[in-house]
Amino acid sequence: MNQATDLPPRSLFLRCLLFLLVFSPALYAAFLMKHTAVDVGCWDMWENAPLLKKWHDGTLTWHDLYAPQIQHRIVVPRLMIIAMSHLSGGDFRWENYAALLIFTANAVMLWFLLGRTMGNSPWRWPLMFAFNLLLFCPMHFQILLWGSAMWAAIPMAGVLGCLLLLNPREQPSTAGVWLRFAGAVVLAEMATHSFAHGIGVWPVMLGIFLFQPTLGSVKQRLILSAIWLVIAGVTIGCYFTNFINVAYHAYNLKPGDNAFETGGSLLEGGRLKAALNFFFAFLGTWFARSPFVDHPLDTAVTMGKWTVAWIAVLVLFTLRARLLKAVLPWMALALYVVVIGLLVSKRASDIGEHRAVTPRYLAASQYLLVAGIAITATLGTVFRRAGERWREKHPDELPELKTGGQSFVGTLGVVAITAFCVAQIPVWQYGLHLTHQWHLARRQAQVLQIFMPHLNEQRGLISIETLDMVKKNWNVLDAINTLQSLNLLRTKPLSTPELSHFVREKKPLPQEKADVTEARLLEDGTLDLKGYARFNVGQPVDAILLVQEGRVISLGQYAPKHLLRIYGLDYEFGNVQDVPVKEMYPWQVRVKLAAPEKPIEFWALDVKERKITKLRVEVTPKSDLIMPGAPYFFREISP
């Protein structure tokens, strides 16, 4: 072996510098989270309020922890939520921080797995940098910035932990093998009881027990496999027993429905084709996500087929060359991603095959790319070392291969990794855009959260989509009140809807930035108001406060033109879409006026800084006659 090419940099300073460079995407993700995470709940996060109340009252039961949320037994996330809510005083951002910690733990485990299969090869450093560009890409904004999506990141941590435990560098003792087995069982149970696709860990790790020789003799591995199967059978059997959904936020399921209900047979109504398209799109969606693709489903399906073909070639080559041991953990990782794809394809395609390109799915599907690249690099390292040993034994034969072959392979590797990293640029670009849009929507949601108790009369006129899309079956105000009563809501609602809670800017917003463009009284007696408002380009106001006599009576919310991009999925749980003219940021509100004869003031709110800026316009009726179609008068306020 050529030690010079197989050792990492000897200088400690250089190694630390390289480590920081390799993990710089993680540092950037932490920086981005610091500036984009908002302390506000979203969608099914509000269903944690009854859970926290039961914990507070001492009435929490195992059923409350184990009950299915759609098709997920989220025992581990529920325990984490209880702990984080109490430790943080009800700061929703702690769930975002937990997601980032899980991603970081996954990256560290991948680093060690590379060490297990590639040793101290210098290629380990650029490969890990490429992996981190995937793991910490802003396209993961839903997982990193939506607390409920964090649950889906936990199973992969369990899988990677199992792979590290069950693929030791050296042959452990018998007691050591059983300790590793016990650790793998704990991690597998954690994965299973975090999100539904965690079930896939059981068949995948069975392959490790059967084919990893460092875990002992064939007899010992068969015993381990048998015990693993028994534990898996009991776990999965319990998982699907009394499989009754308890969640309101469950797509087409209602509380009390069997969570295993499906849309019908795969052989009916083109469902098989839809499931297959979903499967391939799920696996191939990464490079289909860019600012240049409006509807990436077809592209994702095509790339998924090419990705599966690439993995199949690697598998066949590995088996033919009898090198399974060298790449076993990466093969298991690839198999796990394929299993996830199969598990979600039928159910998710019933809802819509276009959901295969939902951003939060990338947190799982990206690992097929990781596994494929790692298998390719590991096989390259194995053949390079085999070539070096051959040349040491035959120094006088084929001397031209001593440098020429190595140089060519090395150049090819550099080109491939560079191309892969450069290809991440448009994905990162689009991810940053979506992260910004998500951040804006969460700021709007926080406005709703702090004003919600004071808007009961306007509830039917105000969209609360940024807080909660299920309005008929779930009252988010109940959750807010419950959390506040438990002192588990850090961003509390305002005690009164008065402007005194905010800092007032001295100068009004100029009309090129904010204005009211239309005021119209409708037949049902509501006033329809439209306008536009921004602080700066890329920074819309978080809400327009409609004020009468110093009290906020309603909120102006965004009503931008909806562009059909990814069927709107990239903008789920948000009101903000791409708008043709960024400078305008249109808003709209309908409000029932208790005192229609009094003028309405308009204030632009920056919820992060708790500052308000007045618009240079008021709206008041033109006459004492208030009737549908009556003209309203816009009065400009002097600066």
Describe the overall structure.
The chain has 639 residues and is an alpha+beta fold. Helices cover 50% and strands 10% of the residues. It contains 20 helices and 10 strands. Strands 1, 2, 3, 4, 5, 6, 7, 8, 9 and 10 form a 10-stranded mixed beta sheet that branches. Strand 5 and strand 6 form a beta hairpin. Helix 10 runs antiparallel to helix 16 and helix 12 packs antiparallel against helix 16. The longest helix has 32 residues. The protein is globular.
Number of strands: 10
Instruction: Specify the overall morphology.
Output: globular
The DSSP helix count reads 20
Order of helices and strands: HHHHHHHHHHHHHHHHHHHHEEEEEEEEEE
Distance between the termini: 78 Å
| Gyration radius from CA atoms, angstroms | 28 Å
Poorly predicted ranges (pLDDT <50, ≥5 residues)?
A: 1-5, 562-567, 578-583, 623-627
Short description:
The chain has helices at residues 3-6, 12-22, 24-36, 48-57, 62-66, 75-88, 93-118, 124-135, 141-145, 154-166, 174-192, 201-211, 218-239, 271-284, 297-320, 324-351, 362-393, 404-422, 424-451, 476-485; strands spanning 503-504, 514-521, 526-536, 539-540, 543-548, 551-558, 586-592, 600-606, 611-621, 632-636.
